[in-house]
């Protein structure tokens, strides 16, 4: 059997970024507002710093305004909630992103629920979670949807075309990835199974999957023998492991070399789902701005 086709998330994200940039230019040219994205980072986690920096930089590259709020690790929950309230009230801010994870002394749920749902470009507010949870098959995604899951569904639709009737198995039940991916694939008429640490005979369940989405946070957890020949495998994992040279490299939650020999399609790590996260954030920010301007929903 030929090796799996690579799903090139980096290339797809590049195209999406271009389309969002064109959408921003068109909005402004027609007298609409300049989209504004506020990022909020609490603490100094090096990976979070990189992600937040790249979000602000890309927003500016695409013609948006970027407002960066860097708060010290010892910021109190009340102080963070005050920043969110100020951003909710600011008409130049169309999208608010609080980078996760937050320090342990802050209640994440309390912060996410404080964000105006119309500015919730991460799609984590319970109102937006509920919208996704109750969406009809094929209905437009005219509200913010979590960025990584949105990226996963865009990549799958681009690679496979119609997903209707396919068996999708999701490994991992997080609010950030597993559950919203399940809702998006249900909307696309897949038959969806969510698996987790207590699932019995996980390899056998995975072998039923035409689409296997893995977001479990464990290095090379899914082996080649768990994959149905020809399946589409989407690896959401980003694990940094040490190299013998004393450096580090990124690997996913799927044993990539093994998967490549069995699957029909596979996403690499890096360069698969990761780049879609930031591109989809820009997409969500453009859409949030169009909604505030009273413009109809158009997928770009
Ligand atoms: N508020 C949020 N917090 C977090 C989110 C999120 O969507 N909203 N997701 C992740 C982190 N994240 C963005 O915030 C993110 C993760 C990975 C990538 C990415 O491009 N990864 C590259 C590799 C990058 C590297 O070399 O380290 C890839 O996979 O190719 C972008 C954004 C948690 N927090």
UniProtKB/TrEMBL annotation:
Reactions it catalyzes: (6R)-5,10-methylene-5,6,7,8-tetrahydrofolate + NADP(+) = (6R)-5,10-methenyltetrahydrofolate + NADPH; (6R)-5,10-methenyltetrahydrofolate + H2O = (6R)-10-formyltetrahydrofolate + H(+)
Database matches in PANTHER family: C-1-TETRAHYDROFOLATE SYNTHASE, CYTOPLASMIC (PTHR48099:SF5), C-1-TETRAHYDROFOLATE SYNTHASE, CYTOPLASMIC-RELATED (PTHR48099)
Positions of the Tetrahydrofolate dehydrogenase/cyclohydrolase catalytic domain: 7-122
Entries under NCBIfam families matching the protein: PRK10792.1, PRK14186.1, PRK14188.1
Metabolic or biological pathway: One-carbon metabolism; tetrahydrofolate interconversion
InterPro entries documented for this protein: THF_DH/CycHdrlase (IPR000672), THF_DH/CycHdrlase_cat_dom (IPR020630), THF_DH/CycHdrlase_CS (IPR020867), THF_DH/CycHdrlase_NAD-bd_dom (IPR020631)
Reported function: Catalyzes the oxidation of 5,10-methylenetetrahydrofolate to 5,10-methenyltetrahydrofolate and then the hydrolysis of 5,10-methenyltetrahydrofolate to 10-formyltetrahydrofolate.
Family: Belongs to the tetrahydrofolate dehydrogenase/cyclohydrolase family.
GO MF, one example: methenyltetrahydrofolate cyclohydrolase activity
The encoding gene: folD
Pfam families: THF_DHG_CYH, THF_DHG_CYH_C
PROSITE patterns in alphabetical order: THF_DHG_CYH_1, THF_DHG_CYH_2
Keywords assigned: Amino-acid biosynthesis, Histidine biosynthesis, Hydrolase, Methionine biosynthesis, Multifunctional enzyme, NADP, One-carbon metabolism, Oxidoreductase, Purine biosynthesis
Coiled coil region boundaries: none
This protein's name: Bifunctional protein FolD
Residue span(s) of domain Tetrahydrofolate dehydrogenase/cyclohydrolase NAD(P)-binding: 146-291
HAMAP family, per the entry: THF_DHG_CYH
Subunit structure: Homodimer.
Binding-site positions, NADP(+): 172-174, 238
EC number per UniProt: 1.5.1.5, 3.5.4.9
